[in-house]
Each structure stands twice: as structure tokens, then as C-alpha cells.
Design brief:
The chain has about 210 residues and is an alpha/beta fold. The protein is built from 3 helices and 24 strands. The radius of gyration is 17 Å and the shape is globular.
Length: about 210
């Protein structure tokens, strides 16, 4: 089994540790989190320090691969960290054993696919993207790098999500739609047209609510 380091020791970090064990390929051995005390235990896993400890080139990391456990409220920071760290570390790709993944799918480095997800023919999941429980990605659709999909998101065919898109729980996206980088949707939103301006969209059909926070 490969030793897994997890950047972020909050609820998401604990979930990813659980998922890593379920895959049967990883043993979570280290958390890195600036808000936790080095030497403490989270879910039985030691905290080795914060981001500075992880980036300290003078020390050897106590793991083989890394995964980022930073949530949808900090997508830009999450993706910037991935791009910064990938030159030094290998990132784990975590796919729950219950996910249905067609053999034609492409899943990028550092991506996470939770239980009950369905990835159809020619679906592509970008690096460092996260698909929460029960997401469905239909044929020929692309989820861009750093995207964060909440539980039960449904995406029809030929959809393009650009980088760092966040879709709220239960969001539905019809076919042949493009969603721009920095777009967020609220719970239960139904997307029937291209969303081109970064910001929050809510409702049925999804309408612009407010601009993205800089």
C-alpha cells in the first residue's frame, strides 16, 4: 500500500482518509494543516505540521503521494496549491470502489471520486477535481481541473466545465452547456444555458445572483 499525505485535516481531510482506506491502495499516514498542532492526532493520523513543513525542501516527506483536502470555499487557493506542489510531489487519484467508471474515462492526477458516482463513456475529470457522493457525469462531458461538485450533481452529455467551477448539491446541467471558470451554483440549480460570467447562480433555471468574491 502507498503511504498517503493529506493537506488539510478538517472534515474533508478525514473523509479522504476514509476513502483512501476504502480503495485498498493507500494508507493515510500524515496530515498537514496550519490550524492544527504538530504531533496531534486527527482520526488516529498524526499531524506533521503545516504548509511550511510540507514545502520544506530540507526534509523528506513521510509519504508516497499527496491529496488536497481543501473545500469549495477556497477553490482558487486549492488549485494554486496543487499547481505549486505538483512539481515536487506525486498526487494520489482516489476513486471509491463503488463508483461506476467506464473504461473510456480519463481521471486526472489528484482527482477524487466519491461513492456512487457514475462516469459515462468518454467523460473526463481534470486534475485536482472532486466529485462528491452520487454525482453523474454523462458521456463526452468534461469536468475541469480544480472543480468541486457537491453530492448528487447531474451533468448531461457534451457539457464543458472549465477550471475551478463549484456546483451546489443537486445541481442539474443539461446537455451541450459550457460553464466558465469561477462559476458557483446554489443547491438544486438547473443550468439550461451557458454560464459565462464568474459568480453565483441559483434557481430553476439558474440565474445570476451575485459576482464572484475577489
Amino acid at each position: 500500500m502507498k503511504r498517503l499525505g493529506i493537506l488539510g485535516a478538517g472534515d474533508l481531510g478525514v473523509q479522504l482518509a476514509h476513502l483512501a482506506l476504502k480503495t485498498g491502495h493507500y494508507e493515510p499516514v500524515a496530515f498537514f494543516d496550519d490550524s492544527c498542532t504538530a504531533g496531534s492526532l486527527i482520526a488516529g493520523i498524526p499531524v506533521h505540521g503545516g504548509l511550511a513543513t510540507l514545502e520544506d525542501a530540507s526534509t523528506l516527506p513521510p509519504f508516497d503521494e499527496l491529496v488536497i483536502a481543501i473545500g469549495y470555499r477556497h477553490l482558487e487557493f486549492r488549485q494554486n496549491l496543487f499547481e505549486r506542489l505538483r512539481a515536487r510531489f506525486r498526487f494520489a487519484t482516489l476513486v471509491d470502489p463503488t463508483a461506476l467508471v467506464d473504461r473510456t474515462c480519463i481521471i486526472g492526477e489528484g482527482a477524487v471520486v466519491y461513492a456512487g458516482c457514475v462516469l459515462d463513456m468518454n467523460a473526463e475529470i481534470g486534475c485536482n477535481a472532486l466529485l462528491n457522493v452520487g454525482c453523474v457525469i454523462a458521456h463526452d462531458s468534461t469536468v475541469g481541473a480544480g472543480c468541486f461538485l457537491s453530492p448528487a450533481v447531474k451533468i448531461a452529455g457534451f457539457v464543458q466545465l472549465e477550471t475551478s467551477v463549484s456546483l451546489g448539491i443537486g445541481t442539474t446541467v443539461i446537455d451541450n452547456v459550457r460553464i466558465a471558470s469561477g462559476v458557483r451554483t446554489g443547491a438544486g440549480a438547473v443550468v439550461i444555458n451557458d454560464l459565462q460570467e464568474p459568480g453565483l447562480y441559483v434557481g430553476v433555471p439558474a440565474r445570476f445572483k451575485k459576482a464572484a468574491i475577489q
